[in-house]
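[job 4471] stage=fold_predict status=RUNNING
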Amino acid sequence: MKILEGISFKECEGLPSFFQNDSKEFHNLRLLDLAKASPNIVEIFIEGQDLNNLRWLCLQECMIQRLPNNLFNCCHLQVLHLTDCNCLQFLSNILSHGLNMSICVGMKELSTSIGKLNALLECNLTGCLRLQELPTSIGQLNTLQELNLSECSSLKELPTSIGQLSALQNLYLNDWSSLQELPTSIGQLNALRKFHL
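[job 4471] inference complete, writing structure tokens
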């Protein structure tokens, strides 16, 4: 088990016996698929492991309300998939290059600490229907290249700090019926190549 780099517990409701016997033997894990796994599997697996080498994590359609605390220590995490995590209500500080939270309809707010994700390249919030505002700290994401806010129907405006996203190339605001006006700071996005309304 010590050289295992990828594992899938997709749609699992219980852990296999070998895992329970060797619960600390996954420190080389780089890829972990927990899509549709029961919340207790997510909690047990992530909280009980040293996942410092984890690069890719999928929690798609997991019925979790919060992210396990140990996940915040995954300093090499590059991609985090939270698609269809409808019970997730709050996102705290996660170190990742790619953040996919599309269709997290329960998500109401993003932590101001999102501005500390200085390696984040892509942020997909498509279909986060209850998300009411973006923190101004989002403007601190100096490496962000793509921001997708399509179908975020509760968002009424963008923070003026969005103009500080110096690396932003793609901005998607499709099907945003509540949008009242765009901040003038959008004109400061010099790297912008695609802008979808």
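[job 4471] summary: The first strand starts at residue 6 and ends at 8.
[job 4471] exit 0
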